[in-house]
Amino acid sequence: MKPLPHHYDVHLAGGPAGYAQLSTAGVPELRTAPPADYDGPGDAWSPEHLLLASVQSCFLFTLRAIAHLSKVEFITLDLEASGTVNRQDGVTRFTEIVLRPRLTVSSSADRERTLHVLEKSEKMCLVSASLSTPIRLEPHITEQE
């Protein structure tokens, strides 16, 4: 890892209605629009979906690092995330995010140690740690021969 601080730049181009394009150097553009719940088209990545995707991808990349350092090997991660948006204290916001990691490990894996690595990954994830929204982890560990 490069020394901190790190700096990131993203550009958004859009108009008074319709889609917007997100871009940053070196990666494909991403089309975004409001979700159907906010009268958007429902066929593009919304800010709400992007927030959940950020939490998910950060969780995976943090899990990779922590598992490596902890010498806990896993075979695959399948991660579902759901977020609830509601009014709280007069503000519309995410009131909860639930992460449901399904981690596949070998049959020789230490289940308690693996669970600890999953919990630590959620706590150490940069994106999760940057949010005030409570995040609930509902892990499931599957053993594979």
User: What's the mean pLDDT score?
Assistant: 96
Query: What is the total tally of β strands?
Result: 7
Fourth-level CATH superfamily of the largest domain: K homology (KH) domain
Order of helices and strands: EEEHEEHHEE
What is the CATH class name of the largest domain?
A: Alpha Beta
Helix-strand category: alpha/beta
Tell me what portion of residues adopts beta-strand conformation. Answer: 25-35%
> Which bin fits the share of residues in helices?
25-40%
Radius of gyration: 18 Å
- CATH architectural label of the largest domain: 2-Layer Sandwich
Fill in the CATH topology of the largest domain.
GMP Synthetase, Chain A, domain 3
Number of domains: 2
Q: Which spans of ≥5 residues are poorly predicted at pLDDT below 50?
A: none
Count of alpha and pi helical runs: 3
Globular, elongated, flat, extended or rod-shaped: what is the shape?
globular
Q: How many angstroms separate the termini?
A: 34 Å
Instruction: Give the biggest sheet.
Output: 4 strands, mixed
What do you see in this structure?
It is a single chain. Helix content is 30%, strand content 33%. The protein starts with 10 loop residues before the first strand and ends with a strand. The strands form two sheets. Strands 4, 5, 6 and 7 form a four-stranded mixed sheet that branches. The protein folds into two domains: 1-45; 47-144, 2-Layer Sandwich (GMP Synthetase, Chain A, domain 3). The mean pLDDT is 96. It is built from three helices and seven strands; from the N terminus they run E-E-E-H-E-E-H-H-E-E.
